[in-house]
From TrEMBL:
The keyword Transferase is assigned to this record: no
Residues in Enoyl reductase (ER) domain copies: 18-349
Biased amino acid composition, Polar residues: 13-23
This protein's name: alcohol dehydrogenase (NADP(+))
Length: 362
């Protein structure tokens, strides 16, 4: 086994009472020794995803073991197994939300390993298909994974800015491609955050006319800078009424509970509402789907084919996330600020400080 350092959630530090803490602490844990088709990756940058926050505030409190979050990162190959053919020591790579799948089911054969019939192995909190161990995530200095679930980081893409592409980027990319968005399409992006700002960039690069949906006009300048042609204030009933039936696709990246009906009303004939920011149980009025044959869908990150295509597209169009890079020792600050929406638009942790053996453990 290999020992590495990272930032972990420890249930014993976080009692499940009204005053429970969700703080992560620095600690050491074990990675597996390399299998024949494995890479060892020194993690340089790891994005802080809103789903990490959901996990820390919810699901992790139910676990009886420590867990390291993080599932969108870039880094450098430090060792390869004997069967690895696509990577060499020193290569720059990117890793996303999946690290294994069965490889045999219909979904896997279609390049949609994210929907593997046997359950994909997620980057943290998953169950390893070989030894049954719990996967530990990218808020750490090293990761070990199968070669086929690593991607070569395209030359020219900033490693910190590229890290969020591996979750947020492909999460927005898949519904855009499924809806056939291209020149002349009308796309609305609800929520200009870690997901939404990449939705704007990708939609605009595909040739669509992009409108940001926001509760206030405060982000109008940012929306335009990112490639949007307009901003619609969703608290203005007149603006909502004037935009009814206008869009081919609404990318809903809002990270909390909200009504879907106002967004469905914005769709034109055969338009699609893709809910990607908060795919939790929600009330839907089916009559809202009837007028115009509207469609309601969602998406769970992406498979290997879509992820590779997204990275190539981002390299061609020089697309990376807008990031605020923090040393990993400030991970708890990042999570607290993310909960308040205090970030433009994605926190990324620089893991280099984990090499400092004298750094504090908390």
């Amino acid at each position: 086994m290999r020992t590495t350092t990272g930032w972990e959630y420890v249930p014993s530090d976080n009692p499940t009472n009204g005053n429970s803490s969700t703080a992560l602490r620095r600690g050491t844990f074990q990675r597996r020794d390399l299998r024949e088709d494995d890479l060892a990756v020194r993690i340089d940058y790891c994005g802080v995803c809103h789903s990490d926050l959901h996990m820390v505030n919810g699901m992790l409190k139910q676990l009886g073991t420590a867990l390291v979050p993080g599932h969108e990162f870039t880094g450098t190959v430090t060792e390869v197994g004997p069967a690895v053919t696509g990577f060499a020591v020193g290569d720059q790579v990117a890793v996303g939300t999946l690290v294994d799948s069965c490889g045999q089911c219909t979904m896997c054969r279609a390049g949609q390993e994210n929907y593997c019939a046997q359950g994909p192995v997620v980057t943290y909190g998953g169950t390893d298909r070989v030894d049954g161990s719990l996967t530990q995530g990218g808020y750490s200095r090293e990761y070990v994974l199968r070669e086929k679930f690593a991607y070569r980081l395209p030359a020219g893409l900033d490693a910190a800015g590229a890290a969020p592409l591996m979750c947020a980027g492909v999460t927005m990319w898949e519904p855009l491609r499924a809806a056939g968005i291209g020149p002349g399409s009308q796309v609305a992006v609800a929520g200009l955050g870690g997901l939404g700002h990449l939705g704007v960039k990708l939609s605009a690069a595909l040739g669509a006319q992009v409108t940001v949906l926001s509760r206030t006009p405060a982000k109008a300048d940012d929306a335009a800078r990112l490639g949007a042609t307009g901003l619609l204030v969703t608290t203005d009933e007149e603006q909502l009424k004037g935009a009814r039936g206008r869009f081919d696709l609404v990318l809903d990246s809002i990270p909390g509970p909200h009504e879907l009906s106002p967004l469905l009303h914005l769709l034109g004939l055969d338009g699609t509402l893709a809910v990607v920011g908060y795919p939790r149980p929600a009330q839907v009025n089916l009559f809202d789907l009837v007028a115009g044959r509207r469609k309601l869908t969602s998406s769970g990150t992406g498979g290997r084919t879509g992820t590779a295509d997204m990275l190539a597209f981002c390299a061609e169009h020089a697309i990376t996330a807008e990031v605020q890079v923090l040393p990993s020792a400030r991970v708890n600050e990042a999570l607290q600020r993310l909960a308040k929406g205090d970030v433009r638009y994605r926190f990324v942790l620089d893991l280099a400080d984990l090499d400092d053996l004298d750094a504090p453990a908390h």
